[in-house]
């Protein structure tokens, strides 16, 4: 993981300790002492973790270090684990149109409404969303289902029909997956 940014928020003692070890750590360390500076700092960062000695903020990327003293090696291990969690969570969400697909929970989300999906449904949505042109049934059979094109099957059509029905019933969206002359497409 490159460009990991460790922001020490209102905790200068920890900053000075980690700054001395900075050459041996695989993250950039910054001290921030007010919320305005913090907001300005994180606006352009993608991979960051905020460490403080008490809960100041309402953010997922904050770790509160309030159990002191702590072994420095244990602290570095905790920081690395927190960065791994952030990285894992950032890879688990895919934006498709106005929806968020959570790959970990296998849910499609929009405006506090969620829909449970199967792995095939998620794979179908993601595959369709990556194509700018309609995707044929044969291509979906091959790429999503790993079927040979010579197999006679209505699996894809049935699957798409059921998926569209689930999306319509949950989100009242009849146009998320469109039927085109050459196949299916996400708007």
Structural description of this entry:
The mean pLDDT is 86. With 187 residues, this protein is α/β, with parallel strands linked by helices. It has 2 domains: 5-91, Rossmann fold; 93-186, Winged helix-like DNA-binding domain superfamily/Winged helix DNA-binding domain (Arc Repressor Mutant, subunit A, Orthogonal Bundle). A 4-stranded parallel sheet has the order 2-1-3-4, sandwiched between helices. The protein has a 4-stranded antiparallel sheet with strand order 5-6-7-8. It has a two-stranded antiparallel ribbon with strand order 9-10. The protein is built from 6 helices and 10 strands.
Classified in CATH, the superfamily of the largest domain is: Winged helix-like DNA-binding domain superfamily/Winged helix DNA-binding domain
**Structural class label:** alpha/beta
Using only C-alpha atoms, the radius of gyration works out to: 23 Å
Spatial order of the strands forming the largest sheet: 2-1-3-4
Question: Which series of helices and strands comes N to C?
Answer: EHEHEEHEEEEHHHEE
Cα distance, first to last residue? 34 Å
- The CATH topology of the largest domain is given as Arc Repressor Mutant, subunit A
Q: How much of the sequence is in beta strands?
A: 15-25%
Could you say what the CATH architecture of the largest domain is?
A: Orthogonal Bundle
How many individual helices? Answer: 6
For the record, the CATH class of the largest domain is: Mainly Alpha
Query: How many β-strands, per DSSP?
Result: 10
User: Mean pLDDT, as a whole number?
Assistant: 86
Query: Domains counted in the coordinates: how many?
Result: 2
Q: Which term fits the overall shape?
A: elongated
Which percent bin holds the helix content? 25-40%
